[in-house]
């Protein structure tokens, strides 16, 4: 892959949290790239570092967290050395924006939709009120909402409508990259499907590159062109939609087991399989491969050495000793 | 399947809304019809799923069965006895028989109670087990039943020392200490990680088989319902619109709403990231305070005909055990 294809490149990103209990290695040496116009899925159980990774991309890691290493290249330029001011003026929202988890419940209840959206737009753009209003209506139409919604208050709107407003707000400054953190989790199935369709349409229309985070492999199958699987702060598998969900199936035992634990509607199974145990405490992660205590195929080597990310076929990488041949 | 353990007949729960001055003067009442006339039976030893979107009245139904809410109208018959309105002392007896697992394992347990105290409290309230040692034996047995083994290791733990999955096991154990015959489980796995979700459902199913329990499983998730339940009832705006065997409902859904719900479910299958999936439904769920005339689904239905706006369809049997409330069901 030429670098010109990649709109975002992350190299050896490390994010640690310095807590009283010790250092939490929340994101530990992660590298990946995002191509122009693709949707990259980021999956894993809660606490595996999905949200921390993307907060790193926005340089919004909350204290006591810190980016302790690596590079984040947006359009070839590393954003880690940038100051907070530069981030705010040039990068955040303008190049890369985010739909936060649960953001639809964080709209100010005492402001009308117009007022909250106006606030955002005037903070970043130096334009007249009437122009800003035009712009708001434009974006509301884009996400499939009627114009008269600007006079309403958040409590008058359904969850799906609020999520659309949050998405519209994230698009105001015409970013190239949009991160969606669990945008469908608290919604009903029908609304979920509508939001997924909306994200797909917007991606095509505006030429966006999307990072889509969820813990649900079934949702990811509907949206992601490529998939990143994380476990305990580590990348364990990267592959295309076809490589993960196709006939070959995933290669890493964790992805494989997670996929088997995902119930399928049109298949009657007697017993769903599951992964025994719980994800590890990241203050003191297991030695070697972090998944080995829960892995049924763990070998001696897995307990001692950390597996490197290796390519099993083009565009398909995994970190597992089982597939490592010297 | 044998005799129904629970019979629900024409159950209603209407919540009053605040009225405007004109409405008061005119003597008009405004209601949110959360549950608006539902009838179903749950057989002894079966897992019955109640499925629907948020706001369809499934949780209210669960609360009515638990007697946490008083029904506006209708009857609840449990083991042949009418339990619709109970006095305090009878209520206690009823609750020994019908227990509940709540959705949020993080909020449903006192953070200052150890697992042992959590499990012992219902025993003290219901005066089961005379000595402490006797109660401890029951607590131990329930923990073993939910596969928290060895029980000693978990009895001394506070909720924050347990993972989400373990908490939900303790919550299930708490219902089991009183040896109930029926358990109402309201979204028991929706807040649990995917990798452990299957484990919890598996555990609940094993316990159900071993102890011959009856479950009412309330969920919005059709895929777990198919795996977990024997029969499913689909609710929409306070009414049951389709009911039947779990496989039948999903493979041969007859109501357009059920079909839309099924179409909307994501499946882990490759090659869909570039296509837009059409869901055969319009708009969003209306408020239960303003229920559409005729068939309550007609404003969102793609196949609605004039009859649907005027006449409310009743639940009829289209095949043995498969009921649907639609004027034009697809077969």
What does this structure look like?
Chain A is of the alpha/beta class. Chain A has ten helices and twelve strands. Chain A has helices spanning 50-57, 84-91, 113-124, 129-142, 159-171, 189-206, 217-223, 241-245, 253-260, 300-304, and strands at 6-19, 22-35, 39-43, 65-74, 77-78, 96-99, 177-181, 209-214, 226-231, 234-240, 310-313, 316-318. Chain A has an eight-stranded mixed β-sheet with strand order 6-7-8-3-9-10-12-11, sandwiched between helices. Chain B has helices spanning 21-26, 58-65, 88-97, 115-125, 132-145, 151-155, 164-176, 194-211, 222-228, 246-251, 256-264, 306-310; strands at 4-16, 31-43, 47-51, 73-78, 81-82, 98-101, 182-186, 214-219, 231-236, 239-245, 316-319, 322-324. In chain B, the strands form two sheets. Chain B has an eight-stranded mixed β-sheet, with helices on both faces. In chain B, strands 2-1-4-5 form a four-stranded antiparallel β-sheet, with helices on one face. The radius of gyration of chain B is 21 Å and the shape is globular. Classes of the chains: A alpha/beta (326), B alpha/beta (331). At the A-B interface, helix 6, helix 7, helix 8 and helix 9 of A face helix 8, helix 9, helix 10 and helix 11 of B.
């Amino acid at each position: 892959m030429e670098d010109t294809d990649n709109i975002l490149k992350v190299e050896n990103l490390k994010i640690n949290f310095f807590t009283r209990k010790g250092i939490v290695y929340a994101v530990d040496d992660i590298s990946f790239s995002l191509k122009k116009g693709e949707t990259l899925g980021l999956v894993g159980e809660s606490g595996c570092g999905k949200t921390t990774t993307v907060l790193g991309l926005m340089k919004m890691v909350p204290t006591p967290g810190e980016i302790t290493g690596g590079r984040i290249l947006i359009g070839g330029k590393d954003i880690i050395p940038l100051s907070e001011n530069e981030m705010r003026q040039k990068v955040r929202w303008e190049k890369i924006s985010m739909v936060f988890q649960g953001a639809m419940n964080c709209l100010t209840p005492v402001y009308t939709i117009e007022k909250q959206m106006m606030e955002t737009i005037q903070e970043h753009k130096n334009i007249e009120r009437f122009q800003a209003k035009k712009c708001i209506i434009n974006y509301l139409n884009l996400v499939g909402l009627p114009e008269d919604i600007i006079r309403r208050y958040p409590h008058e709107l359904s969850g799906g409508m609020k999520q659309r407003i949050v998405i519209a707000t994230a698009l105001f400054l015409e970013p190239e990259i949009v991160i969606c953190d669990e945008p469908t989790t608290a919604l009903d199935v029908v609304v979920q499907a509508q939001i997924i369709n909306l994200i797909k349409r917007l991606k095509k229309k505006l030429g966006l590159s999307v990072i889509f985070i969820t813990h649900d492999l079934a949702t990811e199958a509907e949206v992601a062109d490529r998939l990143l699987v994380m476990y305990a702060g580590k990348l364990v598998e990267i592959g295309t939609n076809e490589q993960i969900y196709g006939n070959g199936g995933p290669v890493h035992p964790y992805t494989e087991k997670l996929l088997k634990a995902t119930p399928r509607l049109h298949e009657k199974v007697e017993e769903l399989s599951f992964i025994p145990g719980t994800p590890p405490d990241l203050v003191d992660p297991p030695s070697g491969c972090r998944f080995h205590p829960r892995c049924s195929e763990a070998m001696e080597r897995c307990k001692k050495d950390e597996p490197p990310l290796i390519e099993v076929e083009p565009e398909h990488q995994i970190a597992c000793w089982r597939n490592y041949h010297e | 399947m044998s005799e129904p353990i629970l019979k629900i007949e024409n159950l209603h729960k209407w919540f009053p809304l605040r009225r405007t001055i004109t409405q008061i003067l005119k003597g008009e009442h405004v209601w949110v019809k959360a549950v608006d006339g539902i009838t179903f039976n749950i057989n002894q030893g079966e897992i019955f799923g109640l499925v629907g979107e948020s706001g369809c009245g499934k949780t209210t139904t669960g609360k009515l069965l638990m007697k946490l809410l008083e029904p506006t109208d209708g009857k609840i018959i449990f083991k042949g006895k009418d339990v619709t309105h109970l006095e305090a002392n009878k209520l206690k007896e009823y609750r020994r028989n019908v227990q509940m697992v709540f959705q949020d394992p993080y909020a449903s347990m006192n953070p200052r109670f150890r697992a042992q105290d959590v499990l012992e409290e219902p025993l003290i309230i219901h005066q089961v087990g005379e000595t402490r040692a006797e109660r401890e034996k029951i607590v131990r047995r329930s923990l073993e039943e939910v596969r928290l083994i060895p029980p000693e290791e978990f009895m001394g733990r506070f909720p924050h020392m347990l993972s989400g999955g373990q908490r939900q096991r303790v919550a299930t154990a708490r219902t089991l200490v009183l040896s109930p015959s029926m358990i109402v489980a309201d979204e028991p796995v929706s807040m649990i990680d995917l990798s452990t979700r299957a484990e919890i459902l598996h555990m609940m199913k094993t316990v159900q088989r071993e102890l011959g329990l009856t479950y009412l499983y309330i969920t919005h998730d059709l895929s777990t319902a198919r795996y977990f339940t024997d029969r499913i009832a689909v609710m929409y705006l306070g009414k049951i619109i389709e009911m039947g065997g779990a496989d039948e409902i999903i493979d041969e859904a007859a109501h357009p709403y059920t079909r839309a719900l099924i179409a909307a479910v994501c499946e882990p299958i490759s090659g869909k990231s570039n296509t837009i999936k059409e869901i055969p439904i319009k708009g969003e769920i209306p408020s239960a305070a303003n229920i559409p005339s005729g068939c309550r689904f007609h404003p969102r239905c793609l196949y609605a005909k004039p009859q649907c706006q005027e006449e409310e369809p009743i639940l009829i049997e289209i095949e043995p055990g498969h009921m649907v409330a639609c004027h034009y069901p697809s077969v």
